[in-house]
């Protein structure tokens, strides 16, 4: 489907590429986090000195409790400051990545040619909103934790080894071969968390499924039955989820266990050394109380970076998944055609005859190209484009509006040729009535006027849409919403014809305006269109409705599979 | 905050014992962690004293070192048990919450349900439930267990080292983690709301711009629409920046609290030890316990980061679960009159709230057993709305409607559904087997009679299709996925027929069917239910051959 396996970058490479612009910031954030973690040994040393002085007054160097506490607090503030900067930097990097990725994806997706989009609107919405948001915790939590886990334990191990190689051995045994340990835990956790996501997703889908059917359930008197059924299924899912969690928690328990055992062994070793029962591992010098306390305080912090990493592991899995999806989507958009121009506001060109010659178009990415017959439409003419389904009627209309890029051929309006440069001005001459209108979330008034001056009453009357408006709650202030809630298909088209009347554009393209309508509603649509024509508008209508075709001046027939 | 507390209490109330056990173990984990570090610090310092004073041989090393090992193992085991128990209890509580949500949605009026069934609303509903899974795990339980651990530490430190250290450490955590976090998180809800609004904004703008991009390009507004979408992206970035800053402040407050508690314990304990009031080993306990208590507030960090989101989600969830019960008819209906028409409408009309024009008006008819009434009219004439009113989903604006001589409004819901059912234009199937879908038509405890099921399927010419898929046990995806539109429609028809209703309302029953199948389906239904009164809305004229009578709506 896509490129061959060996060209395919791994999800990790894709993720790195996405984050490349902020790689420096992320690295800096990581190092600041490491610096913060490395403040702890200094704090531990201060505590060691204070307790050492208490145990053996007169020991050198000595430190009073108050001075030690003040130093401890001061270092803690330094640590907080470093952590603060680290988090701020990684949050900043995450923000940049997220903003730029979203902006790039959305602007390119919106400019795809009509009807051949590489992804559905719902997919684009989900990807650009929730899914891409997974990049943030990856940058703010996982990346810094990953760097810390690579550096901090090693640094602590070296510090401990300078005091006592035996203590270093204890840490090494408790956290055996750190990378392996991490990998094992990571794999188990990843697998379990993926399974858990699936199970929780299943619970949600079950709920959605039932709520989507709630009217049917009420009509069937099946609310109680369905509830009981949902209860059983939820319980079943919970039992399966718990089975998964039992494994997942085991892996994090292993981490907890190793770190607790590490601390316990360190305490016993240090205690025995200080009593004097053990005299090995300290490079031939007797361990001082201050050193002993220092070693004991280092032990729990040695494991902390590993625990942080395990906690952030899920963020990595989520980011890798979304990176792969983003990459596949962007490649698909690359492969898909774009519309001509940018879709900005333009100045309508002088009107002449609309001519098209030798147009060959691929109606979909995988479809075979179709050749469309040449045609000319004089200003003020009303022309029907006819032909069986699949002959390319809608494709021709979209090509005339520069919404799809022909593989060959040219389109002229008078002397102006349709191209990327002229497309925005070109389209300013056109009005558009699609077969299934989609309404953005705006008031009906805005939808029809597009916030431009004009005679709204007259436009509604000419399109026979005044009664449609009257039936809506709030009339012109009604918000139809995504699915055109509250208006039927025929009503929606009448509203769009009203918009065409209002905009007074010289050429109007209408795609199957009477499809799936009863004859009575169809007649109203035709009357609205003829009213456009009566004021001199050029009409080009794709249709196979005999009544509509008869109402036009002439027709251009497309042949199936031409 | 009150919203979250009420909701938390509701979640806990149903699973009291699971939560109490989980809470006990959470506390145990924290207490053992503090004890492990405190004991280790005491042991090491005491050993140092013994080593220096040459009293090593008298030192009881066995019990402390065994204690340290025991605490280490016990803590890990308690942690594992705690996580299992609290997650199990949370899953149970969330399952209850989902059921309560479904009940709440079921009690909403018909129009409100239609809005809630939209993809956007469903998406938000489930993400709200997901947001609340941290309420107990990451806020309530850590808060309670942490508070208990702090109190236990207060008692232990008071006893071992005197009141000064105990009270100092307790107060620092109390004000730092308590008031400090509340103060920092006071803007959480506002920020979370902004973030959510922006995220929904991105979704909505992306969806509508992508759908309408051809339209927008021709209007010359695509660039503007793109800019509007990117403005939402910008708003989202700003909201996230605020939430991140909040998280940073929470982390700083927690770190500062811990450091202050440790330093204070060190200063007071050290001074007391220097003055000979306590031994150095005891002074070490205070310090190490104070540092170990950090864990009791660290657990709150994630919860605090999510608190605003939870408040928002909680408010919406409560709004749905607290839907008032469906109104019960004030005047109970009398007995059915067998002589009266099955369904009788007199001068029915209906207008949407806020609209000046009625959707339909002056609808009158009588329907007797075995009759088929067709409602016709142009698109937008209110045929589907009329059917919803006839089905008792919405009250009529004026006029009367009675079933077997009893006013519809006086019939309790279960009684009404026993006599009358409807197959809406966009009827929904559920995920599960064919049998499960059909069984929805039966009383709550009824089992599906296979012969009746096949008879119903045969009536709608679906028996061969279902048999080809492996019979009644064949599984469907969510929303009946796997069947074509026409097949799903016919399965919904068969399901309604299984109820043997006296009145059956059908909205565009043959939509998506070819003429031959449409004819077979309607004939089959009529043969299966010879005594039932049908009211059918259809814009396909061939269907009208089945009509006893037609009424045109304008």
Automatic annotation (TrEMBL), chain A:
Domain ABC transmembrane type-1: 32-318
GO CC list: plasma membrane
Pfam families the UniProt entry points to: ABC_membrane, ABC_tran
Topological category with respect to the lipid bilayer: Multi-pass membrane protein
GO biological process, one term: cysteine transport
Top-level taxonomic group: Bacteria
Sequence ranges assigned to domain ABC transporter in this UniProt record: 354-562
Annotated keywords: ATP-binding, Membrane, Nucleotide-binding, Transmembrane, Transmembrane helix
Record PANTHER family: ATP-BINDING CASSETTE SUB-FAMILY B, COMPONENT LINKED WITH THE ASSEMBLY OF CYTOCHROME' TRANSPORT TRANSMEMBRANE ATP-BINDING PROTEIN ABC TRANSPORTER CYDD-RELATED
Protein name per UniProt: Cysteine ABC transporter ATP-binding protein/permease CydD
Organism (species): Thioclava atlantica
From TrEMBL, chain B:
SUPFAM superfamilies found in the cross-reference section: ABC transporter transmembrane region, P-loop containing nucleoside triphosphate hydrolases
A Gene Ontology term for the protein's cellular component: plasma membrane
Domain ABC transporter: from-to ranges: 343-551
TM spans (from-to): 23-55, 135-159, 165-185, 250-269, 281-300
PROSITE patterns according to UniProt: ABC_TM1F, ABC_TRANSPORTER_1, ABC_TRANSPORTER_2
Membrane topology: Multi-pass membrane protein
Main location: membrane
Statement: the UniProt record of this protein carries the keyword Membrane: yes
Domain ABC transmembrane type-1: 22-309
A UniProt-annotated Pfam family: ABC_tran
Signal peptide: none
GO molecular function, one term: ATP hydrolysis activity
Family matches, as InterPro entries: AAA+_ATPase (IPR003593), ABC1_TM_dom (IPR011527), ABC1_TM_sf (IPR036640), ABC_CydC/D (IPR014223), ABC_transporter-like_ATP-bd (IPR003439), ABC_transporter-like_CS (IPR017871), P-loop_NTPase (IPR027417), Type_1_exporter (IPR039421)
Keyword tags: ATP-binding, Membrane, Nucleotide-binding, Transmembrane, Transmembrane helix
Gene3D superfamilies from the UniProt entry: ABC transporter type 1, transmembrane domain, P-loop containing nucleotide triphosphate hydrolases
Cell location: Cell membrane
Single GO biological process annotation from the record: glutathione transmembrane transport
UniProt name for this protein: Cysteine/glutathione ABC transporter membrane/ATP-binding component
Annotated organism of origin: Thioclava atlantica
């Amino acid at each position: 489907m896509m490129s061959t396996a060996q060209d395919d970058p791994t999800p990790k490479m894709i993720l790195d590429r996405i984050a490349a612009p902020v790689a420096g910031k992320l690295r800096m954030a990581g190092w600041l986090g490491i610096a913060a973690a490395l403040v702890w040994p200094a704090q531990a040393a201060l505590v060691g000195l204070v307790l050492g002085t208490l145990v053996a007054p007169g020991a050198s160097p000595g430190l009073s409790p108050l001075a030690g506490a003040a130093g401890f607090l001061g270092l803690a503030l330094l640590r907080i400051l470093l952590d603060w900067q680290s988090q701020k930097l990684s949050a900043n990097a995450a923000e940049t990545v997220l903003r730029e990725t979203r902006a790039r994806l959305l602007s390119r997706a919106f400019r795809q040619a009509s009807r051949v989009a590489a992804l559905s609107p719902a997919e684009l919405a989900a990807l650009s909103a929730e899914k891409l948001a997974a990049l943030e915790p990856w940058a703010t939590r996982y990346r810094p934790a990953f760097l810390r886990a690579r550096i901090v334990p090693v640094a602590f191990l070296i510090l401990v080894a300078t005091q006592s190689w035996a203590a270093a051995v204890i840490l090494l045994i408790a956290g055996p071969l750190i990378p392996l340990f991490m990998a094992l835990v990571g794999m188990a956790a990843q697998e379990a968390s993926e399974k858990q996501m699936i199970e929780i997703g299943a619970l949600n889908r079950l709920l959605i499924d039932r709520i989507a059917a709630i009217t049917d359930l009420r009509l069937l008197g099946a609310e109680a039955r369905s509830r009981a059924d949902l209860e059983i299924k939820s319980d079943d899912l919970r039992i399966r989820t718990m089975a998964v969690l039992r494994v997942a928690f085991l892996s994090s328990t292993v981490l907890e266990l190793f770190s607790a055992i590490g601390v316990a062994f360190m305490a016993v070793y240090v205690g025995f050394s200080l009593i004097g029962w053990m005299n090995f591992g300290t490079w031939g010098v007797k361990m001082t109380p201050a050193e002993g306390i220092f070693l004991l305080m280092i032990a729990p912090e040695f494991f902390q970076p590993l625990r942080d990493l395990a906690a952030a592991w899920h963020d990595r899995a989520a980011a890798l998944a979304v990176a792969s999806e983003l990459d596949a989507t962007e490649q698909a958009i690359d492969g898909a055609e774009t519309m001509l121009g940018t879709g900005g506001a333009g100045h309508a060109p002088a009107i002449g005859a609309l001519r098209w010659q030798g147009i060959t178009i691929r109606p979909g990415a995988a479809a075979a190209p179709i050749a469309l017959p040449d045609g000319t439409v004089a200003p003020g003419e009303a022309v029907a484009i006819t032909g069986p389904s699949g002959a390319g009627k809608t494709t021709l209309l979209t090509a005339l509006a520069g919404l799809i890029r022909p593989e060959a051929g040219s389109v002229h309006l008078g002397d102006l040729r349709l191209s990327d440069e002229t497309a925005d001005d070109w389209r300013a001459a056109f009005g558009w009535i699609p077969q299934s209108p989609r309404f953005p979330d705006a008031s009906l008034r805005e939808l029809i006027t597009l916030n431009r001056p004009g005679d709204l009453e007259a436009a509604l009357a000419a399109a026979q849409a005044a009664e449609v408006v009257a039936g809506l709650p709030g009339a012109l202030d009604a918000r139809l919403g995504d699915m055109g809630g509250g208006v039927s298909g025929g009503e929606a088209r009448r509203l769009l014809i009203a918009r065409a009347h209002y905009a007074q554009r010289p050429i109007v393209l209408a795609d199957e305006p009477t499809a799936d309508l009863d004859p009575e509603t169809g007649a109203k649509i035709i009357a609205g269109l003829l009213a456009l024509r009566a004021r001199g508008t050029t009409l080009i209508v794709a249709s196979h409705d005999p009544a509509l075709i008869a109402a036009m001046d002439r027709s251009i027939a497309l042949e199936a599979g031409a | 905050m009150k919203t979250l507390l009420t909701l938390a209490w509701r979640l806990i109330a149903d699973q009291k014992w699971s939560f109490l056990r989980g809470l006990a173990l959470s506390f145990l984990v924290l207490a053992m962690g503090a004890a492990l570090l405190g004991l280790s610090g005491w042991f090491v310092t005491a050993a140092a004293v013994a080593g220096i004073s040459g009293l090593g041989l008298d030192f009881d090393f066995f019990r402390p070192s065994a204690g340290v090992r025991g605490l280490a193992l016990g803590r890990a085991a308690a942690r594992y048990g705690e996580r299992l128990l609290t997650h199990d209890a949370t899953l149970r509580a969330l399952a209850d919450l989902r059921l309560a949500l479904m009940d709440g949605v079921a009690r909403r009026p018909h129009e409100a349900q239609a809005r809630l069934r939209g993809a956007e609303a469903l998406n938000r509903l489930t993400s709200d439930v997901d947001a609340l899974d941290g309420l107990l795990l990451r806020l309530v339980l850590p808060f309670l267990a942490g508070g208990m651990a702090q109190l236990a530490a207060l008692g232990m430190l008071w006893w071992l080292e005197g009141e000064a250290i105990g009270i100092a450490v307790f107060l620092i955590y109390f004000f730092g983690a308590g008031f400090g976090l509340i103060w920092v998180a006071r803007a959480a809800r506002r920020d979370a709301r902004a973030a959510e609004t922006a995220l929904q904004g991105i979704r909505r703008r992306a969806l509508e711009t992508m759908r309408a991009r051809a339209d927008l390009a021709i209007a010359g507004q695509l660039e503007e629409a793109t800019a509007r979408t990117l403005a939402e992206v910008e708003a989202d970035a700003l909201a996230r920046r605020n939430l991140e800053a909040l998280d940073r402040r929470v982390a700083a407050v927690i770190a500062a609290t811990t450091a202050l508690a440790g330093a204070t314990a060190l200063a007071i304990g050290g001074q007391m030890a220097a003055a000979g009031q306590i031994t150095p080993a005891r002074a070490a306990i205070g310090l190490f316990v104070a540092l170990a208590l950090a864990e009791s507030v660290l657990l709150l960090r994630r919860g605090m980061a999510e608190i605003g989101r939870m408040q928002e989600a909680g408010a919406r969830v409560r709004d749905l679960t607290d839907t008032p019960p469906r109104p019960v008819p004030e005047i109970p209906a009398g007995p059915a009159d067998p002589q009266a028409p099955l369904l009788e409408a007199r001068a029915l009309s209906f207008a949407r709230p806020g609209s000046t024009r009625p959707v339909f008006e002056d609808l009158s008819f009588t329907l007797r057993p075995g009759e088929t009434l067709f409602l016709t009219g142009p698109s937008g004439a209110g045929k589907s709305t009329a059917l919803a009113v006839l089905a008792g989903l919405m009250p009529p604006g004026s006029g009367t409607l009675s079933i077997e001589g009893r006013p519809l409004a006086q019939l309790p819901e279960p009684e009404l559904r026993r006599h009358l059912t409807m197959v809406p234009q966009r009827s929904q199937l559920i995920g599960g087997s064919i049998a499960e879908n059909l069984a929805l038509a039966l009383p709550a405890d009824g089992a599906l009679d296979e012969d009746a099921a096949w008879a119903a399927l045969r009536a709608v010419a679906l028996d061969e299709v279902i048999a080809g898929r492996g019979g009644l046990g064949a599984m469907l995806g969510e929303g009946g996925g796997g069947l074509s539109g026409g097949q799903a429609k016919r399965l919904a028809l068969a399901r309604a027929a299984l109820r043997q209703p006296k009145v059956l309302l059908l909205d565009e029953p043959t939509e998506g069917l070819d003429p031959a199948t449409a004819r077979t389906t309607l004939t089959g239904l009529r043969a299966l239910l010879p005594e039932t009164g049908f009211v059918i809305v259809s814009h396909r004229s061939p269907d009208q051959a089945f009509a006893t009578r037609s009424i045109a709506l304008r």
